[in-house]
Amino acid sequence: MKIHGTILGLDFGTKRIGLAVGQMVTATASALGTIAAIQGEPAWNELDKVIDEWQPVAFVVGLPLNMDGTSQPITKQAKHFAAALEQHYNLPVYLADERLTTREAREHIFQQGGYRALMAEPVDGMAAQIILTEWLQQQKTNLAQ
Questions:
Q1: Is residue 115 assigned to a domain?
Q2: Would 1 be classed as within a structural domain?
Q3: CATH number of the domain encompassing residue 128
């Protein structure tokens, strides 16, 4: 799969959705923060602003799974959100395993600024960055093979 352009990564949540932006050339991503959600329904007007600014060519949505790879209740909601994204913006949406990304994001934020930073900074944007970076690196590896 060859994707050229900006890719938006999303860490789905029922109250907040983390955002990150990245691109395939360097297989890196940067956290953008979060947008509000109500029971998993994003604040579409907030997301529209992000889309207008970054003009992504595709989305990567984190798929929450149990450690054994099975679905959990929020898995279905994340898939529904991915389908709504695809329909709303008419862009491809890819699902990416997000197991342990929130934990990794918390550890990263704590290492950067301690407990105070962890309490002040939502982890969702950092989790989206991790999800997108891992997905981009996997795609780059697959292209090299």
A1: yes
A2: no
A3: 3.30.420.140
Residue 61 near residue 81, CB atoms below 8 Å:
yes
Is the alpha carbon torsion for 71, 90, 46, 129 positive or negative?
A: positive
pLDDT tier at 56, thresholds 50, 70, 90: very high
User: Token digits for 90?
Assistant: 């008419």
pLDDT digits (tens, 9 = 90+) for 2-38: 677 899 999 998 898 999 999 988 888 998 988 999 9
Cα dihedral across residues 64, 11, 36, 84: positive or negative:
negative
Beta bridge partners of 38: 41
How many Å apart are CA 77 and CA 96, to the nearest integer?
Answer: 14
Cβ atoms of 71 and 65 within 8 Å: the answer is: yes
**Which of 15-19, 70-74, 100-104, 133-137 shows the lowest per-residue confidence on average (mean pLDDT)?**
100-104
Inter-residue contact 83 to 94 (CB < 8 Å): no
